[in-house]
Amino acid sequence: MTLENKNFDEVVLMIPHARRLGLRLLEREDDYFVVEMPFTADLEIIPGSGLMANGAITAMLDTVLGAVAYGQFETFRRIVTLDLRVDYFEKPRPFSSVITKCRCLKAMDRVIYVQGDVFCKDEQSPIAHGVAVFSSAEMEARK
């Protein structure tokens, strides 16, 4: 099976924490993914505040950036986060879903550079920005 035949659910939602975060693909092009993470009380930093925890946003970014990196190859590859940096500009709106748009900057045989922005409704007003570097290696066939 090539990556062309795999959908977001097969690639990302087989990861237990991605299912727990409730990630949902909104849009996909060759070089980017747009993914939503709905607000749930489980993701609140302070119960009842409606504010999503930064850790949940970081986990979302790591997962979606990794999916973008993974999608750069025609064959199955191991993808490992080497470096992840997230800058937070402001808190998300209380009780609001967050959306991330992530894209590949450069993909080489063993290293992939990706970036993404997180926003609530307005893509022009990001609440966070992430950049990451992933390593990649071909997977050996199982015997």
Question: How would you sum up this structure, described in words?
Answer:
- The chain has 3 helices and 6 strands.
- With 143 residues, it is of the alpha+beta class.
- The protein has a single domain, classed as Thiol Ester Dehydrase, Chain A.
- It has a 6-stranded antiparallel sheet with strand order 1-2-4-5-6-3, with helices on one face.
Compact description:
By secondary structure, the protein is of the alpha+beta class. The chain has helices spanning 8-11, 16-21, 54-70, and strands at residues 24-28, 32-37, 77-88, 98-107, 111-119, 128-138.
Task: Give the secondary structure arrangement, pairings included.
Layout: H1 8-11, H2 16-21, E1 24-28, E2 32-37, H3 54-70, E3 77-88, E4 98-107, E5 111-119, E6 128-138
Antiparallel strand pairs: 1-2, 2-4, 3-6, 4-5, 5-6
Order of helices and strands: HHEEHEEEE
Arrangement of strands in the largest sheet? 1-2-4-5-6-3
Strand content: 35-45%
Write down the oligomeric state: single chain
CATH T-level fold name: Thiol Ester Dehydrase, Chain A
Keywords:
six-stranded antiparallel beta sheet, 19% helix, 6 strands, Thiol Ester Dehydrase, Chain A, alpha+beta, disordered N terminus, 143 residues
